[in-house]
Each structure stands twice: as C-alpha cells, then as structure tokens.
Amino acid sequence: MNALRGSPRRSRLSPAGLLRRQWTTAPGASIALALLVLVGAFLATAVPRAATMLHTQAVHEQLAAVPAAELDLTATARERPTTGPGTGPTTLDDDVAAAWGSTDEYLGAIVDGMPADLASVVDTPLAMLTVAPVRAVVEGAGPSAPSYRIMAGFDPRLREHVELTAGEWPAPVDAPVPSSAPVEIVLTDAVADRMEWSVGESRTIDVEGTAQPVVLAGTVAPLDPDDGIWTHIVPALEPSVVDNGLAPPEITAVAFVDPASWSDFASVSMPLTLEVWVPVDIANITADMSARLQSQVGRFSSELHAVGSGEWADEYFTVGGLSFSSGLRAELEAAAAAAAAGDAVLATVASGPIGVMIAVLLLGARVVFERRREGLELVAARGASTGQLRGILALEGLAIGVPAALVGGVGGTLAFAFDGGPVGAAVAVLFALTPAALLIVSAPSLSPLRRARADLGTSSDGRLRLLGELVVVLLAAAAVAVLFRRGLATSSSAVGVDPLLAAVPLLLSLVACIFVLRVYPIPLARIVGSLAAKPGLVGFLGSARALRDPSAGLVPVLAVVVGVSVAVFSSVLLGTIQTGVEAAASHRVGADASVAGRPMTRAQLDEMRELPGVEVIAPVYSTRSASLSIDGRQRTTTLIVIDVAEMQAVQAGRADTTPLPDSLVKPADDDGVPVLVSGVVDAVTADAAEVRIEGDPYTVESVVEGTTAYSPRANWMLMDRSNAEPYTDTLVPRTVLVRFESGAGGDGDTDEIVSALAEIAGPGTTVQTAESVADELSSTTTVRGLVAALIAAIVLTSLLTALAIVLTLVVGRPARDRLLPLLATLGLDRRGRRALVAWEIGPVTAVSLLVGATLGLVIPYLVLGGIDLSTFTGGDGQPDVAYDPWLITAVLAASVVVTAMASTLAASLGSRIDVARALRKEEEG
Are residues 313 and 354 in the same domain? Predict the structure, then answer.
C-alpha cells in the first residue's frame, strides 16, 4: 500500500506528456525546419554586417589611393599668419609656441566647432609656411652648372615629423633678415644629396636685393615617409627636377628653417604661401557614416573659419577667415555610388534565393504538419477545438523557431564586428515566428473527413489560379517596362537598395514558373498517350501520375528555375565585369605600357627609345591646370600637351585609344589654336558666345567623351606640342606611353621590358601594362566582395533547390506508401519503384532547368540597364553584356548535377516500402 502511495510519477497522458510525445515522434522534419530558420536568421543578421564591413574596407581602399593633400580639409593664403603665443595650453614647444601659439589656438578652435562625425575622423590641425623659391648660389659655379633653388619652410611641428641624421638642428635667427649673419637650414637626405650640399656649407640667396648667407646645419629623414604631411610639403622629401636637355637642370626643394624664427622673417617683403590643414584619419571612417560626413564636409567647406586675427600688424595684414576645401566629399560620394551599385547587384541576385527560402520554409512547415496530422486529427475527433489545435501547433512552432533564430541571430551578430542596422534583427524575429505562423494556418484542415483528392480541383480553384497568374504576369511586365524607361538608378546611392531592381528577377522567375506549370503538361500528355499503347507499367503509370497528381507544384519549380537562373545570371555578370575590367585597363594604359610618376629627363627618354624590345615612345609633355574663360566666367581645365605624330605612332592599330585628328598639328591662326576637348568641356561651353584658353581663342577639332590614357581627369583639353609654348612654361613629361616591337609580346619579354623601363625611370615611378591594371582593378574590395557574394548565392540557391526537391517528395510520400507496396506485391521490383518516384519530379525538373537557363541568359539585358557596373570595371561607361561560354557551361553543368543528385536521393528515399503498414492504411479518396 505504501508502495502504491510512493512519489507520484508524471503521467504520459497529461497535456505536457502528450505534447512531449508528439514533439519527440519523428523529429527529423522539425529539426530540418529549425535548421532552415537558423540559417535564415544567421544570414539576416550577418549579411548586413558583412556588407557594412565590405563597404567600409572599400571606402578605406579608395581613400588610401588618394593623396592626403586632396582629402585633408585644406586652406591656403598669401597673408602672413598671426604671430605670438596663444591664451591656452598647447602641445607646441615653448619657443615655437611664442611665434605660432596663436595660430595653433585658432586651428584648434576650428576642430572644436566641427560636427561630431567630422570631428571623430580628423587629427591635430597643422600649418606650414613656405617662401617662393629663390636661387641658392654656389660660389664659383659656372653658367652651365645646375640651378639650385630653395623654398624656406617654417613647420611648427617639424621635430614631430623628422629626425636628425647628420649635423645639428637649425639655430634660431639672431640677427635681422637680410643681414650678413647666416641663416641655418636643414634638408632631407635625398635633397642634400641631389643638391650636392654638404653639412656646414654656405650658399647665398637673394632677399630684398641683399645676398643672405644660408648654411646647411644638418640633414633630416622623415619619421614616416608615408605620412600625409609630405603630400602637402612639396617638394620636401624629394627635390623637383626640371631637365629638358636645352638648359642646365633646375633643382628645387624645401629648406626647413627654425620655426621659432618666423617672427624675424615676418616683416620681410617676399611672396609666401601659408597652408593650413586638418588631416583626415581614414581609419576612423565607416561606411554607415558616409552620408553624414558628406553633408558635414559640404557645410564645413561652405563657411569661413578664422585662422588668424586678420588685423594689420606693423607692416602687413595677417590672415583672417579662410574657407577650407577637400576632395573627401567627392571620394565618399564615389564610394557610396560603388557601394550602392554593389548592393543593387546583390539585391538583384538575392531576391531569387529569398523567394526560394520562403517557399522552402512553407514546404518544411507542411512536412512538419503532415508528420503531426494523424495525432492532431485524433485529438480533433475527441473534441479538441480549433483554438486548442492551433495552440498545440503554435507551441511546437515556437519551440522550433525561437531557439533556432536565437542561435542564428547571435551567430550572425558575432560573425562580423560591424553595425548592420536594425533590419537584420527584425528579419531574424520574423524567422523565429514563421514556423508557428505557418503551422497555425494549417489547423483548419485537420479533419479526416475534409481530405480531398490532390488531382481533383474545382472550377473556383482554377479561376483563382488564373487570376493570380495574371496578376504576376502584369506586375512583371510593368516592372520591366518601368525599368527600361527609367534607365540607370542614379539615385541609388542616396535611397539604398532599389526595390524595383530587386523585384524584377523574382517576378520574372515567377512568370517562368507559371510558364513551366502551364506548358509542361502538354508534352507530358502526349507522352502518356504514347506510352499507353506500349507494354510495360512503369512508364505509363509514372507519366500518368505526374500528369494527374503532380508532386511538383510551385515550390520545386521555383527552386529549380531560380537556382539555375541565378547561377547563369551570376556567371554572365562575372563575365561582363571581367570583360569590362580588361577593356577599361586597356583604355587606361593606352599602349603596350605606360610609365608614370616623377618628371623624366631627355636622357631618360632617349634611353627608353633605345631599349631593346621598344619600338617607339610618346611622352605626355604636360598635364597642367589651365584657365578657361566662358563668356567672361573663369573655369579651370586640364591642358594636355602631346606630340600628335608620336602618339599616333604609339597607338596605331589600337581600337580603344583617343582619336587624334591630323588637324591638331596645324599652326595657330586668327581663329585660334586647334584643340581636342572632352565631353565635359564641350558641355560647359556649348552655349557660350566666346570661349578662350589663357585669354586666347581656340578651335575645336573634335570632341571625345570620357578620360584618356594621358590624364585621369574627365575635364580636359588637348593640343599639339608645336602650339603649346604660349600656354605652359616647361614641357617635362611625367607620363610616357610605350609601344613594344612586334614579337615582343610574350610574358617573359614583357616582364623584361617593364623591368628595364622601371630601372630607367627610377624610384617613384610606376610601369603599368593592361594586364597589371586589370589585375589591380579585379583585386579591389568591391569586386572581390561581389564575386564572393555571387558564389555564395549560387551555393545557397543550389542547396535550397536540392532541399526543395527532397521535401517535395517527402510531402508526397504518404500516397506512395499506399501505392508502391501494393505494386510490390504484384511484382514491381526496386528499380521500377525508383523509376515511378523519379517520374513525379523528373519531367518538370527537366523543363525547369531549360527555362531557368534561358531566363538566366535574358535577365542581364533586363536588369543591368538599371545598375552602373562602371564602378566595378573602372571604365568611363557601362560595359556591354558579355557571355563567357566556358564559365556559363561550367556553372550550368554544376546546377544540373546538383539537381540530378537531389532528385536521385529523393527518389531513393521515396521508394522504400513497408507492405504491412501500407495494408493498414485507408485508401485515399
């Protein structure tokens, strides 16, 4: 009796026990659905974070390729800085602060007043004052000796940027300037070597007509040669050398004077340039702050900022308010455009897999429901209400979805340490609730009395299907029409992912699914008719069942069509980008090779001409800024000076070069100098009554759109060297185009010639070929990220396709469990049973593969008209759609293999039989 009164055991018939037994019975379907939710939640949280990471890396990559002087917030003035100490603490040395403290305080106040985002990406503001170059005369030098010119430089933070390598730091000036007392300077090692100026040597410069001795006190080396400051202080690390072979070389460089001595020079009448700048730290810039930074930089640049008092100081005015300029805004806009283009491509590709993911979730939920149907029907037959049944299904759905979504969401969050915004978390929550919602929807069909033949329908069902198909077709047609009419989505960088672009591929895939489901029964019916008259059961029965009771509904058809179309479209996209990159690289180089960097002497040009393997070279003699007058309004353009005959010889036979009319070599006449202009210049001067370059008229021989191999600028004007003398002081090339001899195009020959050209050009120059530029463009973060995303989309879609096919046959298994055992008792062997299962999915899968491949080839023409791929290729315009037959064939073959393997696996699983169990089941109907 006491034993019977022992501790109570939990009843297996209690509500909790019944739920536990139901959930632990045949858990495979629930586990599969949970894995789908986990993957979906992971992707929902990880993909936005990964996109932010890639966009941030792309921003850093793009900004790193731009000189700091073009990114930093920079202002210049001809007035002198305000001298004297500041009123607050400073990080300057005490003696320097006595002269520069006030200026440093003004600059610090500018940073303190910046908006938060802009202030977070800038460093300590800097200032540099340089005097116009003056000749440093070497005693006893002859008229053919090189001309050495120095620009006296005052850097308040000099000792923070360089270290002493020989001699001493320059001593403070202790006498009025000019005087017979020498002024001490320091030069960088490279400058001192090139000027042949030894420590302790004295030379003289002209200051207000007086010979001022200058002594080299020491030499210095930069602490960080890659520091952005050296792009502002030009030429400091390396001297500027002008050597055209017609006169002695002219060597110019910055000579640093003790910065605390500026007050002794301030009253000297000499032209100078004061440059102040706020360095931008690109490492602190993230993609998500790009839009705000663009706005803040624009607002900051439009305002005047006090850099000094602007007062009269004894004999001169000091600097007052200045406006700062920066290329940061334009570079951020370009990076945002590239990011928007990447997002548009990914959204276009991802829309299909997203649709398949949703469809597979529906299919997975249906499998789970079918596994629970019998138990729930029994509960319903014993009086359970619809609300109770829905509650049971909701609990299981939440048990499946919430833990899986939590794990996937946390995993996606930890995968990338970047902020992806709240959208990913919201989608993960939807994934968590999806299983419960899908199972609840299934509750009304739980009575065994409500079962119906799957191959029989009503007229109302047909009308609803037709109406739904018509809506999908009309939506797809309208979306494509709007897309064609609108053209490129130029505002995508501001509005984000374009929903129209993202929707078109999925809508077209749905139209393709409708086509498949409507068309494939036609040939299948003819097959049934032909097989009916032939001996053998398998072919006739399989085709008849596929026609009357098709397992392949919308979900597997959508999976196969989208999977194959995404794979083919991705391969076409990759081929288009690669072809565009190669075309852009060839146009950018403009010859077999391009040498660019430092100014090149006539001797170096002669060496290049005599180099074995080089047929001819064509220097770009100048790419200076020139003033363009348009009805009295001044604008600037880049004036390109070449020898037309030389350039025509180098670029002969190339299809991607800038066309050079022979009329460019005509001498200038009363109508003006003949020029070639870019589309940008032509657009801004089209309606002008009078246009002039540097005050002279010109005649336009031709207009060329885009950039040239001679300069990366799109705003340019080109003239022949014979007409250029009035418009440029010197013709010292920094770029040389090279044509190789015929037969010297092998990789080994090319490498040897490139190496030899680089050796002749010297340090600081680069030698590029079309192949090297193409490799460089293909290795950018944006392109690499896009390629990785496309591959991931192909893999994910292939897996979803395989899963959809397997789940489709799992859903149809109950009917097979009643049919196949009966056929087995009549002598149908295993091979025949597998063939019957294959008939359920085979015909529609084959048609779906064909339609999906065709759709993948057509989609590029429809959607690439709305995506600017030039941000990936580096070209001037949209590349043409290119089909790589080998790549397309390989991708298509892989899709076919994956689909076939999934169908084979599903057929194998679906052909297993249990005769005893089948005989206990009631017949369908």
Answer: no
Location of structure tokens 């909701």: 394
Domain match, 314 and 364 both: no
The answer to whether the peptide bond before residue 235 is cis (omega within 30 degrees of 0) is: yes
| Boundary (domain end) residue, out of 702, 736, 768 | 768
The confidence score (pLDDT) of residue 13 equals 47
The pLDDT of residue 117 is above 70: yes
Same domain, 560 and 636: no
Between CA 404 and CA 398 the distance in angstroms is 10
Question: Would you state the structure tokens that stand for residue 63, as one six-digit string?
Answer: 């900004």
Q: How many residues does the chain have?
A: 925
Query: Three-state SS string across 429-495, please?
Result: HHHHHHHHHHHHHCHHHCCHHHCCCCCCCCHHHHHHHHHHHHHHHHHHHHHHHHHHHHCCCCCHHHH
Q: Are residues 394 and 436 in the same domain?
A: yes
Say if residue 256 is in the same domain as residue 332. no
State the pairing for strand pair 593-596/614-630.
unpaired
Stronger pLDDT, 90 or 200, i.e. the higher one: 200
Q: What pLDDT band is residue 108 in, cutting at 50, 70 and 90?
A: very high
Cβ atoms of residues 559 and 800 within 8 Å: yes
In degrees rounded to 5, what are phi and psi of residue 112? -60, -25
Distance CA 62, CA 53 (A): 14
**CA proximity to 701, closest of 731, 659, 670:** 659
- The three-class DSSP label of residue 260 is helix
Residue 2 lies in a domain: no
234 phi/psi in degrees, rounded to 5? -115, 130
Q: Taking 50 as the threshold, does the pLDDT of residue 172 lie above it?
A: yes
Range of the domain at 851: 466-590+776-925
* Each residue's pLDDT tens digit, 429-456: 998 888 888 888 766 555 544 455 555 5
- Cα separation of 40 and 37, whole Å? 5
pLDDT at 58 over 90: no
The Cβ-side half-sphere exposure at 683, using a 13 Å CA radius, reads 9
Measured distance CA(484)–CA(501) in Å, rounded: 11
Using an 8 Å Cβ cutoff, are 638 and 716 in contact? yes
Q: How confident is the model at residue 543 (pLDDT cuts 50, 70, 90)?
A: low
**Do 315 and 332 belong to one domain?**
no
Residue 3 lies in a domain: no
- Residue 254 scores a pLDDT above 90: yes
In a shared domain, residues 781 and 893: yes
- State the DSSP code for 82: P
* Confidence band for 75, pLDDT divided at 50, 70 and 90: very high
Interatomic CA distance for residues 643 and 621, integer angstroms: 8
The residue whose two tokens read 């990076």 is 335
414, 332: one domain: yes
Q: Does some domain include residue 457?
A: no
The answer to whether the beta carbons of residues 63 and 285 sit under 8 Å apart is yes
How far, in Å, CA of 158 to CA of 388, rounded? 80
How many structural domains compose the chain?
A: 4
Tell me how far apart the terminal alpha carbons of the chain are, to the nearest angstrom.
53
Q: Give the closest residue to 220 by CA, choosing from 236, 244, 240.
A: 236
Task: Please state, for a pLDDT cut of 90, what percent of the chain lies above it.
Answer: 22
CA distance 317 to 79: 6
Domain boundary among 749, 768, 787: 768
**Continuous H helices in 549-590:** 554-589
17: which 2 tokens?
């026990």
> What is the 8-class DSSP label of residue 857?
H
pTM, full prediction: 0.77
Per-residue pLDDT tens over the stretch 360-416: 888 788 778 777 777 777 777 767 677 777 787 888 888 888 999 999 989 988 988
Three-state SS string across 481-538, please?
Answer: HHHHHHCCCCCHHHHCCCHHHHHHHHHHHHHHHHHHHHHCHHHHHHHHHHHHCCCCCH
Domain-embedded: residue 454: no
